[in-house]
Amino acid sequence: MKKPHWIEKEHLFAGKEYVCSCCGASFDEPWEECPACGVKMKKIKYDPVYVDEAEMLDILLGDE
C-alpha cells in the first residue's frame, strides 16, 4: 500500500488545492490528517495543473 500524501495542485486562476491521495477530498490547505478520512499525511507531492490549463487556454485562443 502506498503512503498517504497530499497532492498539491496549483491552478492558473484559482490558486492551490490539496487533494488527499486516499479519499480524493480537496482542501485549501494541507492538514496533518485528512479531515475527510482521518489518515495521517506524510508528505506533499506537487502537480502543476496550471501548465495543462495554460496549454488549453492557448488552444482555445488560437495561440501557437
Provide a descriptive summary of the structure in words.
The protein has one helix at 49-61; strands at 5-11, 15-20, 26-27, 43-47. With 64 residues, it is α+β, with helices and mostly antiparallel strands. It has one domain. The chain has a 4-stranded mixed sheet with strand order 3-2-1-4. The chain is elongated and about 45 Å long.
SSE topology sketch:
Blueprint: E1 5-11, E2 15-20, E3 26-27, E4 43-47, H1 49-61
**Shape from CA axes?**
elongated
Low-confidence stretches: none
Order of helices and strands: EEEEH
| Overall average residue pLDDT | 83
Compute the number of strand runs: 4
Q: What distance lies between the first and last C-alpha atoms, to the nearest angstrom?
A: 42 Å
Strand % is 25-35%
Structural class: alpha+beta
Sheet of most strands: 4 strands, mixed
Percent of residues in helices? 10-25%
User: For the CA atoms, what is the radius of gyration?
Assistant: 14 Å
Overall domain count: 1
Task: Give the strand order of the largest sheet, numbering strands 1, 2, ... along the chain.
Answer: 3-2-1-4
* Total count of helical runs of at least 4 residues: 1
